[in-house]
Amino acid sequence: MTESTVWMSYAEAAEALGISAASVKQKARRGRWPRQVGNDGKARVAVPSDLLEVKQATTPATNPPTSPDTTLPTSTVSTPPVNPVHEALARLEGEVVGLRLALDAERRRADAAEARVVELREDRDRWHGLAVRPWWRRLVG
Hints:
Blueprint (H helix, E strand, L loop, with lengths): L4 E5 H8 L3 H11 L3 E3 L5 E6 H10 L25 H49 L2 H6 L1
Helix pairs in contact: 1-2
């Protein structure tokens, strides 16, 4: 591998990445991380260092500062965390509403077209009946 890696057991990698050991196994399988069995009998995978750096950068410090000078003021208004899944869900729900409206409009259009087809068939049959009658019946009535 061209990037630097760290050999870790699944449990160690799970703790370092903040996910379950089963998730690490899946991630290792999908990412085709090299795997080897250590002397202790545990499987070890080569975890890319950039994943560990990203996790460490996003993990807050375990010992927050306790001095009053360094604490940040807290606001009384709490904002809900923005979750991309919720945003996608809201967007998809909006699309569903729009598609339902379009479906209803198309159903109304199809119903109107079917009614028009029935009218045209009746008109065609009436004209066909007139055309089939002999000429002298048309004159006499």
